[in-house]
């Protein structure tokens, strides 16, 4: 089967997906995240600095990574998120402002400045989403959605707010329903989720649930450490002007 583990920011999506892979031996897709793609696609930038066209570019990079990874996995895989996710996030940023963590004054000013281009951006998003949704319908058999149950992680990488997280969750669920892809909501601790998901599909365990979670968390820590090192290097190279602008953006 081709199963998607769905959820918005800080719902345990990646840890659950990785742990399921270790627990069952089922291949999991291995596409790079946006922040891993950033140094290659937009060197010298972080996500909060991206314009709407640059976000679209990152979405295309990510879509390519997903399609290649899914193809390499064949007819059976567990996907960390889906091809819909990054497009939903980018569309959410068009609605809420490119950096949803900005204060209301900054968001309002940026929305006002972008009004001239918004209809064009909306049209482009809809046409690109049409192609992405066609891939989702053809590729995913079922979706396991992880609801918002854990506090949002403030890792300094993702410019989001709690309101943005809940908005994008609604958008994700609405798109999945419109596409007719079967969706099950599985909640609880990561241990409970793994037990529920493997029971749903009758998947045998190759190791214990605690061991699978430990391996998934070790992998997540390694990726986070590498991302933090890149982010810290960028912050150290920031000019005083950018530091000032970043501070004012919280207004």
Could you explain the architecture of this structure?
It is built from 10 helices and 4 strands; from the N terminus they run βαααβαααβαβααα. The chain is an alpha/beta fold and 251 residues long. It has a single domain, classed as 3-Layer(aba) Sandwich (Rossmann fold), CATH 3.40.50.300. It has a 4-stranded parallel sheet with strand order 2-1-3-4, with helices on both faces. Strand 3, helix 7 and strand 4 form a beta-alpha-beta unit. It starts with a strand and ends with a helix. This is ATP-binding protein.
Let me know the largest β-sheet. Answer: 4 strands, parallel
User: Tally the helices: what do you get?
Assistant: 10
Mean pLDDT: 85
Q: Portion of residues in helices?
A: 55-70%
- Low-confidence runs (pLDDT<50, min 5 residues)? none
- Could you name the CATH class? Alpha Beta
Radius of gyration: 18 Å
Count of individual beta strands: 4
Query: Approximately what portion of the residues adopt beta-strand conformation?
Result: 5-15%
CATH H-level homologous superfamily name: P-loop containing nucleotide triphosphate hydrolases
Order of helices and strands: EHHHEHHHEHEHHH
Gap between N and C termini: 47 Å
Outline: globular
Q: What structural class results from the helix and strand content?
A: alpha/beta
């Amino acid at each position: 089967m081709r199963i998607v583990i769905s959820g918005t920011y800080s719902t345990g999506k990646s840890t659950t997906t990785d742990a399921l892979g270790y627990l069952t031996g089922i291949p999991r897709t291995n596409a790079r995240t946006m922040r891993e793609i950033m140094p290659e696609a937009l060197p010298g930038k972080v996500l909060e600095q991206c314009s709407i066209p640059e976000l679209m570019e990152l979405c295309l990079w990510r879509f390519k990574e997903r399609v290649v990874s899914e193809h390499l996995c064949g007819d059976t895989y567990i996907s960390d998120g889906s091809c819909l996710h990054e497009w939903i996030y980018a569309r959410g940023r068009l609605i809420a402002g490119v950096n949803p963590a900005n204060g209301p004054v900054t968001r309002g000013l940026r929305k006002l400045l972008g009004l001239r281009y918004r209809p064009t951006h909306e049209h482009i998003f809809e046409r690109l989403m049409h192609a992405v949704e066609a891939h989702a319908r053809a590729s995913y058999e079922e979706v396991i959605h992880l609801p918002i149950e854990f506090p949002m992680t403030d890792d300094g990488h993702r410019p989001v707010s709690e309101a943005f997280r809940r908005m994008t969750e609604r958008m994700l669920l609405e798109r999945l329903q419109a596409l007719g892809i079967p969706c099950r909501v599985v909640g609880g601790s990561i241990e409970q989720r793994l037990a529920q998901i493997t029971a749903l599909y009758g998947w045998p365990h190759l190791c214990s649930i605690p061991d699978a979670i430990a391996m998934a968390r070790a992998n997540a820590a390694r990726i986070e450490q590498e991302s933090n090192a890149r982010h810290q290097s960028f912050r150290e190279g920031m000019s005083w002007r950018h530091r000032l602008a970043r501070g004012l953006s919280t207004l």
